[in-house]
Task: inverse folding
């Protein structure tokens, strides 16, 4: 199994994503957790977790409002 992330902007367009072929869902979630702010600063608004190319879930990258 290969776990990867696809990043999208507000219009749903793909944003270039660094190589993120990871061996487990936990590894993939940790990888994104360390980088999501950088991706959001580059215009990503959504991250899509893929398992062998199939969507597992979508996640909003907007910071929580206080």
Result:
């Amino acid at each position: 199994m290969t776990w990867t992330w696809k990043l999208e902007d507000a219009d749903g367009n793909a944003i270039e994503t660094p190589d993120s072929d990871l061996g487990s869902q936990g590894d993939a979630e940790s990888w994104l957790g360390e980088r999501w702010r950088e991706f959001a600063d580059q215009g990503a608004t959504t991250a899509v977790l893929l398992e062998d190319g199939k969507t597992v879930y979508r996640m909003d990258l907007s910071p929580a409002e206080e």
Remarks:
- The chain is about 25% helix and 30% strand.
- Residues 25-41 form the longest helix (17 residues).
- Helices lie at 25-41.
